[in-house]
Amino acid sequence: MPTSPTIDLIALDLDGTLLAPDESISARNRSAIKDALGAGIRVVLVTGRGVDAPIRVSKDLGLNLPVICCHGALTKDFGANKTLEKIPVPLVYAKPMLEFAEAQGLAIAVYVDEAFYRLEGSQILMDDMRGPGWFEAPSLAQILTEAPTFIRFLGEESVQRMLREFGDLPLAFRHETWYDFVECAVLNREASKKNALAKLCADFGVPAERVLAIGDSRNDVPMLRWAGIGVAMGNALPEVRQSVRHVTARNDQDGVAHAIERFCPKPEQKSA
Question: Class of 9-86+191-269 per CATH?
């Protein structure tokens, strides 16, 4: 039976993966990450969120690598407070989308200058919208003086109407489903978790075959398939679980720890 390759870097998604449903990190997950770090394995967070959450979690876990956020459109070295990579949505496409959404009363958010903005008085549709990285503005189109990192259309109606109006633009449309809630993130076509992770690994001289990537969402699949070992969470959609070779336990059952323990065993755990 062939042995698994030695892992030099672990890439972890946040929501639905490292984080439990209540956004906590289990003791077993923490222990597995600590053991990996102690073994000299790099650990990087790769998430669709803005910079605030992954920086907070990285500091909490003692990680010192840059964070990949905004679905891969932004890579931030928070230790040096330096943006390593930013791949925004061209302003020529972004502004008409925001103007349309405002005129039609659609639920939308835009990420610009490392902060999320929503319209004043708009409905709070997801828990993460209560975070410190969120702000309200009287007009999103008016605050858009630079190309945004990405745009979020929130809810089925907003997603469908946006796709009908703008779905033929040369942009990437990342659909996510959170229980019965649907959203679509609009990004530059060059922005993806896979591309951002591949570039970061190249900078560190880590080949794909020595990367363990763990995730649960559709936007994780290219990253999981690029990595030498890609692991889908047990709570992932069936299409995500079926797209990779390995599946671990759910995010409320220490799925990340199970995967790390399996593919990055401690020396005493390795079979003779």
Answer: alpha beta
272 confidence band (pLDDT: 50, 70, 90):
very low
Amino acid at 228: G
For domain 91-187, which CATH number applies: 3.40.50.720, 3.40.1280.10, 3.30.1240.10, 3.40.50.1580?
Answer: 3.30.1240.10
pLDDT confidence of residue 180: 78
CB of 143 within 8 A of CB of 112?
Answer: yes
The DSSP output letter for 65 is: S
Q: How far is CA 171 from the centre of its chain?
A: 18
What's the whole-number mean pLDDT along residues 212-225? 96
Do β-strands 82-86 and 108-112 pair in parallel, antiparallel, or remain unpaired? unpaired
d(CA 197, CA 67): 10
C-alpha 217/C-alpha 258 separation (Å) is 18
